C-alpha cells in the first residue's frame, strides 16, 4: 500500500468517526449529485479515477453514470510515446436503507473504454486505437455524513472484452486472425458524493 492510498484510507476512517458523532440525518436528502471515486489500487498505472453522477430514482433504485480517464506520456529526444484511456459507463443499483444514515446496495456497472496511442521514433510515427467493453457486478455501502455529503465503499468483479487494436502508419503485412483477449478483475473503490438536488 503506497503513501497516497494509506492517506486516503486514514481520511475515510477519520470522516467515519466524525460522522458517527454527528446528529441523526434528516429524513429528506438530495436525489441528484456528483462525486468522485478512486481505486484503492492507486499504484496501478492504468487505474482510473471516476467522476460519477448519482441519481436516486426511488427509495430502492439508483443509477450512476460515470466518466474517467488516464493519460500517460513519455518523451526522450526525438522519441515519444503517449497513451490515453477514456472510460464511459453507468451503473444501476438496488438499494436498502439499513439505518437512517446508511444504505447498502448491489447491482452492476457496464460501459466502454476507448484507448488511443502514439509512438514516434525519429521520423517514424505510429497511431493506434482500441475499443473495449466492460460489465461487472458490484456491492457497496453509502454512509451519509449529513444530508448533502456521503462516503461510500464498493467492491466489484468485472469482465472486460479487449477490442482489436487498429494501427495507422505501420507498414502493411500479411493479414492475421486477430487474437481474442479478455480480462476478469476485482476492484475496491472509495466514493465521495455530494447531493445538490
The amount of beta strand, in percent, is over 45%
**Largest sheet entry:** 8 strands, antiparallel, barrel
Mean pLDDT over the residues: 79
Spatially, the strands of the biggest sheet line up as: 1-2-4-5-6-7-8-10
Unreliable sequence segments: 1-27, 42-47
Find the count of extended strands (DSSP E, 2+ residues). 10
- Which structural class do the helices and strands define? mainly beta
Question: Could you give a short description of this structure?
Answer:
The chain has one domain: Porin.
Description:
It is a single chain. Residues 1-27 and 42-47 have low confidence and may be disordered. 9% of the residues lie in helices and 61% in strands. The chain has a single domain (3-195), classed as Porin, CATH 2.40.160. The chain has one helix at residues 3-20, and strands at 33-39, 50-52, 55-56, 61-76, 79-97, 102-121, 124-144, 149-162, 166-168, 181-195. The chain has 197 residues and is mostly beta strands. A hairpin with a 4-residue loop joins strand 7 and strand 8 (149-162). An 8-stranded antiparallel β-barrel has the order 1-2-4-5-6-7-8-10.
Features:
single chain, 197 residues, mainly beta, Porin, elongated
What layout of secondary structure does this protein have?
Blueprint (H helix, E strand, L loop, with lengths): L2 H18 L12 E7 L10 E3 L2 E2 L4 E16 L2 E19 L4 E20 L2 E21 L4 E14 L3 E3 L12 E15 L2
Antiparallel strand pairs: 1-2, 1-10, 2-4, 3-4, 4-5, 5-6, 6-7, 7-8, 7-9, 8-10
